[in-house]
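tool_call: predict_structure(chain=1)
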Amino acid sequence: MNLGDDTIAAISTPIGPGGIGIVRMSGPAATTIADSMFRARNGTLASALPSHRMVYGRITDPADGKTVDEALVTFMRAPNTYTREDVVEISCHGGMLAVRNVLELVIRQGARLAEPGEFTKRAFLNGRLNLDQAEAVLDIINAKTEEGLRIAAEQLRGDLTKKLSEIRARLIEISALVEAYIDFPEEEIEHASKEDILDRLTATIAQIKKLAETFHDARFFREGLSVAIVGRPNVGKSSLLNVLLQKDRAIVTALPGTTRDLIEDYLNINGLPVRITDTAGIRNSHELIEQEGIRRSLQAIEDADFVVALFDGSEPLGHEDHDLMTILSGKRAVAVISKADLPQKISLDPITAGGLPHLHLSVVSGQGVEELKRHIFASHLGGWEGERHGVVVTNMRHKSALDRAAVSLEHAVALLSRGEPLELMVIEMRSALDRIGEITGAVTSDDILNVIFSSFCIGK
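tool_result:
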C-alpha cells in the first residue's frame, strides 16, 4: 500500500544547540529535491550516487546560489529504507537556525512538512513494520529504563507478532475445519471431532488470557509506576525524595509548609520507571495557597499506584497522622517511620491496626532506603522476575483486543457445546481473528492509526 506522490520532510533531531542536526526526507521526490540543492565536493549529483552512501558537500539555495550550510548527505533508495520509499538524510550543523534554514529550503523545493509519526506510519502502510512494531518504535523512544527498552526492543524485533501469528494460525486451522462441515451439511460433526475442536479452542483461550494477563505487570515498564510521598508538614517528605533521587530535587527547610506544589521526578528501581511525587503537607490550613497544595496532595493520593506515608518516629502520632491513615484506607501503601536515627516516641499500634505494612527509615544514615525501594517494586511487581523472560503485553490497546478475542472464542465454545448452528460459531471465530488482527494492523481503521501516530514526535 502506498501513500501517494508527496514527499515529506522534518527535523529528526531535538531542536536546540548540538553538534549535528538531521533533516529527513521520504518520498518519490526526495532525490530530485536533493539534486536541486546539494552538490557533493566533486560535483556529483545526488541521483548519481550509490545508495546508502554518505557524502560530503554543500547545501545551496537554487534561487541565488548562496551556500546555506555544509553537510553530510545520505541517500537511501527504495525499498531498502525505513519507509520503503526513497529517503534522504541531511546531516548539517546543529542549532536552531542552521537546521531550520535547511528544512525551509527542502520545503521550498517541493516537500511538505511531515505530520507527527508520519515516517513510521509510512513504514507501516508500506509493509515495513506491523502496527505493534510501529508502536514499539515509540516505546523505544520513550523508554526510561533498560528493562523498558528491552521489552520495547523485543516487540520491535517481532516477538509479539510471532506469538500472535501462532495463535492466529491455530484459529484459522480450527475455522477451516468447522467451515468444512458447513460446506457439507449432510455430514454431521462427529463427537470426536467436536471434542477435539473444543479442546483446541479451550487451550487457545487459555493462551490468549495468559498473554493478556502479563499486561497487569508489564505495563508499568512502559507507563511507569506512580508513587506519592505524603504526610503532615515537616515530616521529611522532601528529604526522602532527595535521598531516593540522590540529588537535591526539593527544597528542604525546618519551616513547615515549605512544599506548596507537587514536585515530580523519575526513579529507576530494578528497571522499573517510578514517577515519584513529593506532595504538600496535609493539615488543616486557612492559607489559600497551602490549601490548594493540600488539595493537590489529596488528588495525588487518589491517582497514585502506590503511596509512601511518612510518619515522624521521633514524635507521638498527631491528629493529622490519624487523618492520613483514614485517607489511605483501601490504598496500596506503606507506612515509613522516619528519623530512625533519633529516639523513637511513636506508637505503632494505630498503624499496624490499620493494616499498613511499615518500615523504619533514616535519611541521615540511609537505613531503610533500599527496603523502601523493594516495597515500591513489589507493590505491583512482586512476581515479575518469573514472568519477564516470555513475551509480554505493555499496551492497553493490545490488552483490550486480546480480551475481546477471548470473549468471542468463549462464545464460540458455548455455541458448539449447545449444538447451535455452526454458522454462528464461525462468526465468533472470525470476530476473534479480527481482534487479533487489530494488534498487528492486519485489521485496522484510520481512527486507530490517527490516535497511534499522533503520539509520535515529528520526524519519526
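agent: The chain has a mean pLDDT of 85. Proceeding to next step.
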